[in-house]
Amino acid sequence: MIEGILIGLQTALSLKNILMVMMGCFFGTIIGMLPGLGPMTAIALMIPITYGFEPATGLILMAGVYYGAVFGGSTSSILINAPGVPGTVATAFDGYPMAQQGKAGKALAIAAYSSFAGGTISAIFLLFAAPSLSKVSLAFRSPDYFALMVLGLTAVSAFSSKGQFLKAMMMVILGLMLATVGQDSLSDITRFTFNNMNLTDGISFVLVVMATFAMSEALTIILKGKDPSRATEQISLSQLGSIRLDKEERNKMLKSIPRSSVLGFLIGVLPGAGATIASFLAYGMERNYVNEEEKQKFGKGSVHGLAAPETANNAACSGSFVPLLTLGIPGSGTTAVMLGALLGFGIQPGPRLYMTNPEIFWSVIMSMYIGMVILLILNLPLIPYIARVLATPKNFLIPLILFFSVTGIYLMSFNNFDIFLMIGIAVVATFLRLYNFPMPPLILAFVLGALMEENLRRSLLISDGSFNFLWDRPLTAIILAFTIAIISWQAFKSFKNK
Amino acid sequence: MRISIDKIISLLFFVLSVFYLYQTYQIQVFSFDEHAPFNAKTFPTFLAYFGMFLSVLFLVLPEKNPTKIDHKVLDYKSVSFLIFITVVYGFVILKAGFFLSTSLFLFFSYYFLGERRWKWMFLLSFPFVALFMYLLHGLLDIYLRDPFLKMLGIIG
């Protein structure tokens, strides 16, 4: 293994490959910041370019683009509450309020440091445990995945807004209902489309997230423009602050990073789970770990609340390479595109990859780490300039947010039905937000809806329609026990308050 | 007795769940799938019943802190206008093309939100959209249909 690591290090540290990582990080960050274009699109755009390179160089470029795009997505989440990819939705919970308080520079710096730390720790895990962890990822069966998703949704409902568990659960159901629109994945039967062809493929994630976060935020800012309680927020927007973190903030970040890295990496290893569940679970877990005073700050610009999901989503990105490189199973849409690129280079990922092509296996792992170092070096000096986006006067910023939201959708479908649907969802979301119905549970439910139905389908078919699958396997039963504990705790708290 | 808006929303959610359940029963599954342990109706049926259960629970349980909104401080006029102009933008984007419709949308939005710095309004609409289009169309090779620019012979 040491020999393989050295070969990988030698390949990744060649001047050409370092330049590739730098280019990848730079373009990835820019593409990731654009609405509707996430890591998957960024990598897909790079595939034709990489075919002229050696496989290791091509993959190194794509790894750089991947991390750059993830960081770019976090930037738009923090600055304008517009997460371009599901993995950065949880980043917006505390990142955006922090930016609103005039600490955009700090929020971006925390995101950059946490991403770097999460990526570093998981790269070390990947280095030493990749082959053996692939067995863990295969140990998870459909009932376990289903239980994990139920746990994720319950956790985010419990933690997303204080004392609003029932409202949050209603948002979960609404998100799952929206996810069922379109063709059923197995039978191809169309559901809830009302004979509208535009709904046959379902509603896109970018549409829902832009409507419920970016657009509805823009509308809320205008709606509450005359509200005197909002006046201080408007003033603080121009005081963007520096990227320097004080000792207390550093300590908070350092406490969150190790536990979120481990959780993120382990969740990332599971095919299909990926960065989204990892970031939401890390957010929920972090809220449980901190003291009562810190808990109150969650959702209002907590350092813990920002560092945890950012660390976890980057750790999960590295983790998702475990099933890809060791089993040939892509754990996410992005790694599926990477698999396509690998096959294009004539490389078949699988258990024998690190024996037959050690220079590729190890150089990808090494370059992922080098990519993160370069990303940090490139982006930190740029943060004060990027943060100035928030200094844009409201009269300009709001139409620009609306423009980015509409363009993000238009670029995906090139029809105006999706624009109208987005406006409709944004209006409903603005109204619901006004009455404290939280949006994060809706988004997570929407993202997980199809996966959840698929895993419930498999579980029920295997158990011949019986719900015994919920307690047949110890792993499923343990995950569900956690879910029941969260629900019971919420019910107890509610009862106690009365 | 005065019912809070929160409860009215949950009542609407109950109605939505009932409608969703009705639509679920309208799904035509294949005859061989009708009695299968899982078909296209199964998951939506669970969702509908669970949605109804949650909304009834919210309706019957006493409310601790109903949300209070002071409607006098809310700027409904500006929001209605922004929604209206975005709908118009959605209508014309295909016909007028991306460049013209987006530039005009931005320009008029700035104007109606009270902006009067004409130089900035212009720079952040027409040249800004042109730059954005160049980035997408020219550099990233993402096709943007634009009949207006096509007519002028700027794009193919």
Question: What does it look like?
Answer:
- Chain A has about 500 residues and is mainly alpha-helical.
- Chain A is about 75% helix and about 0% strand.
- Chain A contains 23 helices and two strands.
- Chain A has a two-stranded antiparallel sheet with strand order 1-2.
- In chain A, β1 and β2 form a beta hairpin.
- About 0% of the residues of chain A have low confidence.
- Chain B has two domains: about 55 residues; about 60 residues, no CATH class.
- In chain B, α3 runs antiparallel to α4 and α4 packs antiparallel against α6.
- The radius of gyration of chain B is 25 Å and the shape is flat.
- Chains A and B meet through α7, α8, α19, α20 and α21 of A and α1, α2, α3, α4 and α6 of B.
Provide the number of structural domains of chain A: 1
Structural class of chain B: mainly alpha
Oligomer: heterodimer
Name the poorly predicted regions of chain B.
none
Give average pLDDT of chain A, whole number.
82
